[in-house]
Design goal:
- The chain is of the alpha/beta class.
- It has a single domain, classed as 3-Layer(aba) Sandwich (Rossmann fold).
- The chain contains four helices and twelve strands.
- The longest helix has 17 residues.
- The chain is globular, with a radius of gyration of 16 Å.
Length: 202
């Protein structure tokens, strides 16, 4: 099955979730994140604002702010697809980008390589940690530098998704960057050398 067909099917499954189930999933993912210390070992954390049925990461963002972590949101470039990340807080002024998504007004946004942890939205993910995005290529372009690293990876890449977005295998291209983990409402899936190690709540 090609990416376009999978994207359509998985977006449909995601959109079919009831609002109450979405809220429960967001709270459950926060409990899992805290149980596994997902936010503990990172000082600079990139988040996203959910659009079009994406998993609501607001509880995770609010928790990280309460923990006094530096929190950032994507800022689209004027040209190209390499995003920067602007810091966000309780008094941050926001502006809408060309897609209508709010972005922080930050005169000195960071590059992705300056983040410790990046939480990413997705349409689907598979057992090897590959991510199916919206198809715009922004995260691919932003994280392309990581393909040349051999000894260490920064930022750590964690997808955030509903369990219904998990599939056995996704078609992927050579430039697709596997995730280090995926957080759902049920599990934190860790991926080591493309072999998943699911961690269920006890």
């Amino acid at each position: 099955m090609n990416k376009s067909t999978l994207r359509r099917q998985l977006k449909g499954a995601r959109s079919a979730l009831a609002p109450t189930d979405r809220r429960k999933a967001a709270r459950a993912s926060l409990r899992l994140a805290l149980r596994h210390g997902l936010l503990l070992r990172a000082q600079r954390i990139g988040f996203y604002l959910p659009q079009g049925g994406e998993f609501d990461a607001h509880p995770l963002l609010n928790q990280a702010l309460w923990m006094q972590r530096e929190c950032y949101l994507p800022v689209l470039p004027r040209r190209g697809r390499v995003m920067r990340f602007g810091r966000v807080g309780s008094n941050t002024r926001m502006k809408a980008n060309r897609y209508g998504i709010p972005e922080p007004r930050d005169a000195h946004p960071l590059r992705a390589r300056q983040l410790d942890l990046l939480l990413m939205p997705l349409v689907g993910f598979d057992r090897k940690g590959y991510r199916l995005g919206m198809g715009g290529g922004y995260y691919d372009a932003t994280l392309a530098f990581m393909q040349h690293r051999r000894l260490w990876r920064k930022p750590r890449l964690v997808g955030v998704a509903y369990e219904c977005q998990r599939v056995e295998a996704l078609p992927h291209d050579p430039w697709d960057m596997p995730l280090d983990a995926v957080l759902t409402e049920r599990q934190l899936y860790r991926f080591d050398s493309n072999h998943p190690k699911p961690h269920s709540p006890r």
